[in-house]
Amino acid sequence: MNKNVQSHDDFYNEICNKYFKDVYEFCVYLTKGDKNLNDMVEECTQETFLEAKKQIEKLRKHPNIKGWLYVTAKNLINNSFRKYYIKNKYEITVPDEIICSSKIVLDELEKVIDDEIDVDKLKIDVLKRLKEEEYQFYMDYFVEKKPVKEMAEKHNISVSAIYTRIYRLKLKIKKIAVKEINQYIGKNM
Question: Does domain 96-186 match CATH 2.60.40?
Answer without folding.
Answer: no
